[in-house]
Amino acid sequence: MASYLEITDDEKGHELSLFCVPKHYEEDLDRVIIPHGLIMDRTERLARDIMRDMGGHHIVALCVLKGGYKFFADLLDYIKLLNQNSDKSVPLTVDFIRLKSYSNDQSTNKVKVIGGDELSALTGKNVLIVEDIVETGRTMQTLLSLLTECNPKMVKVASLLVKRTPRSSGYKPDYIGFEVPDKFLVGYALDYNEYFRDLSHICVLSEQAKEKYKV
Ligand code: IMP
Ligand code: MG
Questions:
Q1: Long-range contacts of range 49-52, CB-CB < 8 Å, 24 or more positions apart?
Q2: Residue 118 — pLDDT band, cuts 50, 70, 90?
Q3: Domains of the chain, CATH where assigned
Q4: CA–centroid distance, residue 181 to ligand 2 (Å)
């Protein structure tokens, strides 16, 4: 079982005015729930755990855009540091995909992979999928079943966040940064209708902001 840093339901977070938050978002956020520095510290440790398990063979790191891009970039920086400062190292290549989910029928959640190289490039490789947040887990489970068709040597999933929610299918990633309450979170590339990716800390979106940025 993956270990993670638990942010409990009664965690109050931190007052916005104690941190640097873009002026244009000051009215839209309730509290800072995970400051940027804590994200970085936890990510550094995940990099070490990943290299321990996957560092024996060529790793293909697969970024799930757009929400995963910050975590992906920072995680890979830490993995690169480990690679360049140890006597043992493995090649690390990258790829970027987007997932389009069709959930007209709730029971059969289909996911379409957009962009990226041919999935056959993953055959025989150690594949690390990097995602921002797992909620029900259905997106990731569908992607995993697609990827296993290309016969990778190993597939692991790293998700910065996992939401504690009754909607969960029970799926858990192999590497988890934080387990978070069932609230809508933004920042560090997580968005609400494309806004808030340009915010360093992970924050709780206010109810009035949900209305303001509704499409
Ligand atoms: P699921 O695990 O298939 O339910 O889907 C997870 C996806 O929903 C993530 O990749 C996000 O794009 C999105 N998502 C879920 N919860 C949040 C949130 O709190 N903030 C931003 N995006 C979220
Ligand atoms: Mg995502």
A1: 49/175, 50/75, 50/79, 50/128, 50/156, 50/158, 50/175, 51/79, 51/82, 51/83
A2: confident
A3: 5-212 (3.40.50.2020)
A4: 17
